């Protein structure tokens, strides 16, 4: 596209500085102590959308954090692209593992990012990737190259389950009407191996609580005579996988989509180096479900993982005690056709049924969402593929991801449109971890590629 490279090189410093300002605001949706910062971020996004030429921008109130909505209509007969992203971020803890403070962005060089990467919570997930769309819009409006209509919907509750966005979508079908949804909130294989995400896993997230005696007990006086909730909980959790690492919940695999030999062979063509994978994580072996490769285990297969576990005494030194209660948070990643509410019920029924006498078990569902797969013969996918071809010089590989963006399946259900997932992050960018970062090269490459998607999508829609 005419001038995009020169536009980027002329404005590079400003593009980086604007993102850095946005990353300084700790918009942690999970922690109410940051409420004002989350709201402040929504304001900042609103102003940024106004500046890049949206006709109307509003902050739409919800029962939780607001949704920033903006649009620019140039011609009702042209296609409309709906851009979705999120301005909230994960909590940054454990803070002591960050090499620089999470809300004081700095650019550092890394092995994967020789041109430097911006270190900050939200740099990749998703402020940096969301802001690429704002800057791509700036390029198209200021150079008079916006080829179609555009709508922006940027939410502040993605990291906590998008509870209020569902209602917003259901109640605003007409307003959100579009021909394709475009999201940059995923990753790609490597900077020299571009890929487009064609699938996301579903999610069921639950908390379990095991209660034994009515109070904490002396572990000498009572030890051995009553059920210890922590012993029991860990035993129950261990029983959720068999010796082949299959999940033991009855009915769990009933609806799992089985891929054909051909599809699996196609998947196996994606470049992947097991030795480098192990080295990057400092592990001597990978681990997972028997009969599947690493790339299959983390994308087309469902999983069950403890995300946190606590109870009893964890402070300094020793305290001899049998806790009254033990807890765990468990996530199950789901694949197409598995319904997250069905799975949550199956889990609850099973977990309650395996509790031995002497303890009480409570299962509390948190949130969840359906998985998603998108075809590669749609206009949207073809437009994205052509855009990457131009900017990376290579045809991108379609690849299913293991992560979840639960709202995507709701978009399809309510708005009847397909989502194209043009992610520019790398797995090594440490999203949700200490030292999250986003490559400067990736940020600028995203800004360069997005306008081409607009161009090709409009052309192919004719
Ligand atoms: N952007 C991620 C999801 C993601 C990352 C998908 C990389 C594919 C590749 C998103 O912000 C996220 O973290 N989603 C949560 C689910 C949500 C309900 C909290 C997840 O996947 O754990
Ligand atoms: Mn995200
Ligand atoms: Mn996230």
From TrEMBL:
Keywords: Hydrolase, Metal-binding, Protease. The keyword Transcription does not apply. The keyword Metal-binding applies. One of its GO terms (molecular function) is metal ion binding. GO terms for biological process: proteolysis. Residues 199-358 form the Peptidase M20 dimerisation domain. This is Acetylornithine deacetylase/Succinyl-diaminopimelate desuccinylase. InterPro entries: Bact_exopeptidase_dim_dom (IPR036264), Cyt/Met_Dipeptidase (IPR051458), Peptidase_M20 (IPR002933), Peptidase_M20_dimer (IPR011650). NCBIfam families: PRK07907.1, PRK08201.1, PRK09104.1.
